[in-house]
Amino acid sequence: MTAKQTDFLHTEPVGKIFMKYLIPSLIGMLVMALNLVIDGIMVGNRLGAVALAGVGIASPVYTIFVAMSLWIGIGGATLFSQAMGARNVKQGQFIFTHSIVLIAVCTLLIGLTAFIFQESLTYALGANEETFPFANDYLRVMLLFGFVFTVENALSTFIRNDQNPNLAMVALVVTAVSNIAINYYILYVLNLGVAAVAFGTIISVIIGLFVMAAHFFRKDNHLRFVSIRFDRKLIKNTMTVGFPSFLAEVGISVFTVAYNVTLARIAGTAGVAAFSVLNYVHSVMLMLFLGMGAAVQPLVSYYHGAKMPERISQTMKIALVVASISGLVAFVIGQIGARQIVGIFGDFSEEVVDIAITGVRLFFIAYLFMGINFVMMSYFQSIAQIRMATWITASREIIFMMIFILILPLFLGIHGVWLSIPFAEFIVMVTIFLYARKSREFSGS
């Protein structure tokens, strides 16, 4: 590790270091989120609400691929940063190579296997006769080429952990801008459909990979491909450390499927279309909180490896303040601008608009708590407290969410669906507070 990097992480004020990671992470993640939203706006305006709902139904498969990349990518990158903090560069390079090869092989095999059962999978995700053609077209492309996403996402994580958050940001911005331009051309010039939009997204990701390749020409680059053999112990450690990130993304898929199925039962296609709008907006907030986690993880992992608890404490206090303020601002925007937010996705029927507006206002309550939960999950994961990190992800997105989405609609109807996530996030935040108070986290000792 170079002296410049060591001086930067050891001597500069923690607040300054955190902002050097936070700002590029937030910009990159928010641009990617806006990319997803603009995709939704273009599909909704050009192909209609049913096509938009179809893409929304297929989106959990994309989420699963991202989950795989985070499972191995975050797990490997956390171990990489801990190795760098302990000054073990050779071990870090072995971990990097091992992780990239592992993620490419695993996701390629999963995608090809799922492709065989694509039609059954499309219906299982919540498609009906109206939405099936659009959902299946999008799904087919994602299953065949989803491994490209996983490699890009994992590589971006490692580049950020190798003290180059700016390049990771630039690559995400280039990917997003390319995707918007390509899909605009596909929809508005070539007049093609959902499958072509999915191909356009794949092409933009490949462009992003070329941008990331610039990192390997830096003098202070530590990400070098070395000869490896698959190491069972390393695979186990990588999977263990990265499991909370995987579970967080799987939880998004569980959330999406649960909401699609429940809303289809309660409100039909109009309910699913309304949720598709909300889900695009929700993706922006998820990216915002993921950006915060992406700033926390490399620093806490490094300081944990370097045995610097006081710097971990300072980093987390700043991160929690940022997460709290961001969540409050998002909540206020949702209450004031719900109609305007829904309106940008297209000219939908009044039924869809009414359902979506109510959904935004109720669902956005969750953001008061969600940022804190994301940041705390990243913290526990980075210091190898995997049980607590796993508890946060499993309870907020699967356990409590499923309990509430089964119970609340019985008493509150469709309002109960929208409130399931806010209730779950609040309860999880309370459990984190109680645990942190009991274990005296962030004491700097």
Automatic annotation (TrEMBL):
GO terms of biological process kind: response to antibiotic
One GO CC term on file: plasma membrane
Organism domain of life: Bacteria
A matching Pfam family: MatE
Keywords recorded for this protein, A-Z: Antibiotic resistance, Cell membrane, Membrane, Transmembrane, Transmembrane helix, Transport
Membrane topology field: Multi-pass membrane protein
Family: Belongs to the multi antimicrobial extrusion (MATE) (TC 2.A.66.1) family. MepA subfamily.
Name of the featured protein: Multidrug export protein MepA
Organism for this UniProt entry: Oceanobacillus polygoni
